[in-house]
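Ticket #4471: structure output looks truncated?

Reporter: J.K.
Steps to reproduce: submitted the chain below (223 residues) through the standard prediction queue, then opened the result file.
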Amino acid sequence: MDEVRIIEIKQSVYASNDEEAKKLRGELKDKGVFLLNLMSSPGAGKTTTLTRTIEKLKDEIRIGVMEADIDSDVDAKKIKQTGVKSIQLHTGGMCHLDAGMTRQGLDELVDNDVELAILENVGNLVCPAEFDTGASKNAMILSVPEGDDKPLKYPLMFSICDVVLINKTDVMPYFDFDMEKCKEYIAMRNPNAKIIPICAKTGEGIDEWANWLRDEVKKWGAN
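Returned output as attached by the reporter:
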């Protein structure tokens, strides 16, 4: 009896997306548009952090935001209140965005008035990490209530991010969260990741984060 033929579909799908992402990244570079892919679990504080970030940068950098969710337009409405351009992306039940889906959003968002495009990805620590969106840089938020062991449980997410924001530091006294252990675990997965403890509610650490992002946008536009 002949052996069963096995076709590696998953590998080819990722390869196709990687090629699309590379192409998109090149096009954005030519246009001088910096794309930040922001990821986290649901409830980690992406939208609040993003609001704080926009407050710091909107007077010097032209910003546009894509809010990705399975449904609703709640976050897009919140971001629009900051005065920057905001659109909502519905994923049709999918738990991530890939390069092609990101391109569709950028076609609606990016024009001559946008220097920094921010994609607030679907809340999930698994699927979004598997797909290159074509972003210039990847950032993620880990909140204190989630626990300091998440880098051990979700290695891919931490390994692909240029920056890890550890949010909700104001509640550390009420949770069994070891900041130094968390930093150690992140370094195990990604020794090059920049780690910035923040509290989006109080504003702690937001200046350091905004300064990093400002510098990256400038470097992207200058090269």
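Triage note (M.O.): checked the attachment and the full token line is present. Residues 55 and 129 are 27 Å apart (CA to CA).
Status: closed, working as intended.
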